[in-house]
Amino acid sequence: MTDLSLINAYVAGVCKEIQLCSVMAGPWSGMPVHTIYFGGGTPSLLSVHQMQKILDMVQNSFCLAAGPEITCEVNPGTVDDMYLAGLRHLGINRLSIGAQSFDPRKLAFLSRIHTKKQVLDTLEGAGRAGFSNLGLDLMYGLPGETHHVWQTDLDTACRFKPAHLSCYMLTIAPGTPFSDRCEKGLFLPCDRDQRMDFFVQTAEVLENHGYIHYEVSNFALGQKNCSAHNSHYWHRGAYLGIGPSAHSFVPVKTGASWDTHPGAELVFLTSGDKGPVRSWNAPDLQAWLDVLAAGRLPRAGCEILTPVQEMLEQVMLGLRTKNGIPVQALNRDIHAVMARLENQGLGIFFVPAGAPDIRRRFRLTRAGLTCLDSIVDTIAGKIFDKMHFHDNF
Fold first, then answer.
1. To 10 degrees, what angle do helices 285-293 and 7-23 make?
2. Residue 226 DSSP code
3. Domain 32-231, CATH number (from 2.60.120.10, 3.10.150.10, 3.30.750.200, 2.40.240.50)
4. Where are the domains of the chain?
5. What does the pLDDT look like over 344-377, one tens digit per residue?
6. Mean pLDDT across the stretch 152-181?
7. In a 10 Å sphere around its CB, with 0-12 CB exposed, 13-18 middle and 19+ buried, how is residue 367 labelled?
């Protein structure tokens, strides 16, 4: 959102969409809400009162589980002690701070408007406000970055002992300003060997500080501090997205989809041969508001996932995590790929503690995670070649 005069209309729209989703609950009916996440932009632009309106609507519209994880993303420099204390008073119990770096040169390259001091002030203010579950986002692998610079970022972060660290490698996606600058020769991106070295450095340093490397880019001080919200995505649980461009997902065979013609409402799928449903909202803010004003859900489209898409998603998401993927339902060719990966030290078969042997799983080692994309591509090729799968994968 670039027009801040529309914030009140946006908040009203969010509340309206939550209310409509509750009335037309369908697959969501009776499902307890375990996590609430304010993100996808700069939610700290909302006032505490506006946040309260949204939370009140969620609580009045859905059944909240006991002790839900409620996260709010905040950007350094946009919040003060009073604001942070207000968020904590609302019941928000987890902060995700988009620091990206403590280094002024990295912040300038990333076009961040905050300073190192503002990052430190926000971390200290969050502690004073009573936030013990604190997440910090950092980025590495920037052009010209050295291991010393990244080590300093990691050391600075660890001094605060945040409960959670998300460490992302800079990705230069086509069509972005970074891509344009790179094509013009304004900087050279890190090569593959440098990126792998940074990744290994990150894992080793944070594990030495007591962090669990539970997802390729995420680290937690103990299992209890793993992000419940993000873990739900990676395990392909049901989620409901609210706002422009938001996505929702119903993983069960009997799901719900939405027609896109004017006046259409929820259309429930009851046939047993239908698959999980993913839907998405209109991306344009005004179009989203107009549809809500007419009393309709702002769904721009949906898709029913095929069994092959399901398996691909589970492989792509599962191999990112320490929990890995179940192997008992995969075809012989994929088993052979996994066996080769284990022989090369890139993966490992394991049985979770207390589980029967039939629940055997496969995960990547640290070395395997450094070449995650190529491994996923190889397994995806086997899935497409054979397309042998079981519904209980």
1. 50
2. S
3. 3.30.750.200
4. 32-231, 238-308, 321-386
5. 999 999 998 877 776 889 999 999 999 999 999 9
6. 92
7. middle
